[in-house]
Amino acid sequence: MSNYHIKHLEEYFQVYRKSVRNPEGFWEEIAEEHFVWRKKWNTVLDWDFSKPEIKWYDGAKLNITENCIDRHLHIRSDKTAILFEPNNPNEEARHITYKQLKEKVCKMANVLSEKGIKKGDRVVIYLPMIPELAISLLACARIGAVHSVVFAGFSSTALSTRINDCGAKMVLTSDGSYRGSKTIDLKGIVDDALEDCPDVKSVLVAKRINSNIVMKKGRDEWLAPLMEKAYGDYPPEVMDAEDPLFILYTSGSTGRPKGMMHTTAGYMVYSAYTFKNVFQYREEDVYWCTADIGWITGHSYIVYGPLANGATTVMFEGVPSYPDFGRFWDVVQKHKVSQFYTAPTAIRALAKENLDFVTKYDLSSLKVLGTVGEPINEEAWHWYNDHVGEKKCPIVDTWWQTETGGILISPIPFATPTKPTYATLPMPGIQPALMDENGEEIQGNQVDGRLCVKFPWPSIARTIWGDHKRYKDTYFSAYEGKYFTGDGALRDEVGYYRITGRVDDVIIVSGHNLGTAPIEDAINEHPAVAESAIVGFPHDIKGNALYGYVILKETGESRNRDNLKKEINQMITEHIGPIAKLNKIQFVPGLPKTRSGKIMRRILRKIASKDTSNLGDTSTLLNPEVVDTIMKESL
Ligand code: WTA
């Protein structure tokens, strides 16, 4: 057990050293002691970052749901597995015990199976944060189908692109969703998306908002009556360690979204191990991560990590501002939440409101606070620490990515002394490296560079679905023999890491990764637009907001600018979703370009951030004069 629950700093260093000296031995011991296997592995690790090919626990056989559900039944049968807190605080919360979870997952597994879904088939899940969402992930895993959850805030175009990319045969959705005081017509979005998805033969619809939706004959069916009739047991499909568990799309700096593929055994071991350590979860705790299961944070730290540890995990359907800005703290008080995990953007939004929204609740149940998704600024860190944690709760600033499957750098509460804005130290098994411009690893402390990882860990994504070359080019080509994260970081005098942000064309807005290319593609589809460039600029609450520079075609010049701005944002909403809307749009006569035709985003970024005192070298520009015009007219 000693490797599994780290209790003080010295122990962390001991465990860390062991994990680096003998990674295979380290991960073998954890896998052996803490999980159930149908068959043990032949080799712990095979890897070659030049291909890249990574296999953990090859030869092993297992089912992740057996580890997340069945094995708990003899001791935790009546313990709450999922605690569902609805959007409306007057609707009663629902406790789903491990026993009930097993029955629901098995019923849904039978439903999927009766609809012809088999091991290896892809199922797209487009559901709001209701229990059916978690259950559907587990039901897919039970029968060996590969789930691909699409965040239910994405548009129909984004949804159809993802359905077609992974070749899904089935979509799970609902008649709609609640979001604060609003409802959203999810089924309508699915109907639109499916116009472009000929391979989807079946749509199962969960009832949530009782709206009047159209069910397409022969394709759509209500989920509840099927579940009712279904048998409540389903033997777990025996999976290979490296069988795909899920595909989750993330934005790239260019073109199509990347379907990151995660496999079964390594992902299970790493998400469970990090959950236990980063949140110091104890049997009686109630753990709450406010993310949506549509993102990796929800996969690893609402569903798989917590359930593999037999935890009680809260699923929250609502938003932090409904019915008022005290909602998070109301829920913490009501369910006596012990670990609370959220995003810096939510903290910043709540910190702007009256402090009474926090102080009127009893938050004494809290033990550990977490953040994820983007760098947390010092002010937000202190507000969280002072007012939510009342200076008693360590804050774990967890750095990781969709690609990494689990947390790579984070303090371990009560062991690692925290430092505002620092993700601090690597988890056991994680070997970070900072690289300089010449591709050399930077040694020593008090340095900064581009963040890479030198050695594989169990939950690293194995490929981009259908595009292994892109996987190699994106992550393993910038620095030979290393996984490149796309982030910059600095290492302070004691070896703590601080993530400074993306060094590529991905912009993080309210914790959501947005690639510039797909947004620009959407804008450029507007008939009046000739070309566009998107950059991020600092925003109080969102962290970054989007600033668009747009060149109009001649035909667009005479159009009303305000209307054009609305239409451009409408295009973005249709193609990607409202999260990618631009805060500012500036119409420009041209864009600063290098002689090779590349847009010099560095300059656009500075203008958008009103940081124009030193624009750096503009001599290599093809059209330096355009910079003055853009500056003069900037918003
Ligand atoms: C950023 C989310 C600073 C980072 C789990 C990373 C962070 C990207 C942090 C991945 C953090 C995430 N501090 N930056 N604690 N956590 N990031 O794939 O730029 O949605 O590369 O995964 O978010 O975002 P993704």
Brief summary of the model shown:
By secondary structure, the protein is an alpha/beta fold. A seven-stranded mixed sheet has the order 5-4-17-16-18-19-20, with helices on both faces. A five-stranded parallel sheet has the order 7-6-8-11-12, sandwiched between helices. Strands 22-21-23-25-26 form a five-stranded antiparallel sheet, with no helix packed on it.
Describe this structure as you would to a colleague:
- Residues 12-68 form the Acetyl-coenzyme A synthetase N-terminal domain.
- This is Acetate--CoA ligase.
- Belongs to the ATP-dependent AMP-binding enzyme family.
- Residues 519-598 form the AMP-binding enzyme C-terminal domain.
- InterPro entries: Ac_CoA_lig (IPR011904), ACAS_N (IPR032387), AMP-bd_C (IPR025110), AMP-bd_C_sf (IPR045851), AMP-binding_CS (IPR020845), AMP-dep_synth/lig_dom (IPR000873), ANL_N_sf (IPR042099).
- A hairpin with a 3-residue loop joins strand 29 (529-539) and strand 30.
- The mean pLDDT is 95.
- Helix content is 32%, strand content 24%.
- By secondary structure, the protein is an alpha/beta fold.
- It contains 21 helices and 31 strands.
- The strands form 9 sheets. A 7-stranded mixed β-sheet has the order 5-4-17-16-18-19-20, with helices on both faces.
- The chain binds 5'-O-[(S)-ethoxy(hydroxy)phosphoryl]adenosine (WTA).
- 5'-O-[(S)-ethoxy(hydroxy)phosphoryl]adenosine is lined by residues 250, 295-297, 372-375, 397-402, 423, 485-487, 499, 502, 508, 513.
